[in-house]
Amino acid sequence: xxxxxxxxxxxxxxxxxxxxxxxxxxxxxxxxxxxxxxxxxxxxxxxxxxxxxxxxxxxxxxxxxxxxxxxxxxxxxxxxxxxxxxxxxxxxxxxxxxxxxxxxxxxxxxxxxxxxxxxxxxxxxxxxxxxxxxxxxxxxxx
Length: 142
Known about the structure:
The chain contains three helices and seven strands; from the N terminus they run ββββαβββαα. The chain has helices at 52-64, 114-120, 128-137, and strands at residues 12-22, 26-33, 38-40, 43-45, 66-81, 84-98, 108-112. Strands 1, 2, 3, 4, 5, 6 and 7 form a seven-stranded mixed beta sheet that branches.
């Protein structure tokens, strides 16, 4: 966390996904953001008037190059970033295909099994989403 939260500013609204695909086993997509030097889920701020579901799909495409279909909602995250409260709504999302192109915002994409993804995630707040995805989908994706 960085600094106090300003009471006058509304929370920054963001959306993202725990993106998964099925190969021989389930794999989860993590993105590396060079600006922060972290590994996280694809996510980002909503545009003015943008629905959270549409924003989540847009962010996945922008950051991973993957088209996806949203599944059930997952727990939201609330934390302080740059002195402001940020609220990120998450969904489980199945990757339908696409191709990753490194960029300024995201320079690497990794597909990892759930246990390895949990370990690679930089922020503790992101780890419970691995379990939430597995509990939500259960044997349907494993």
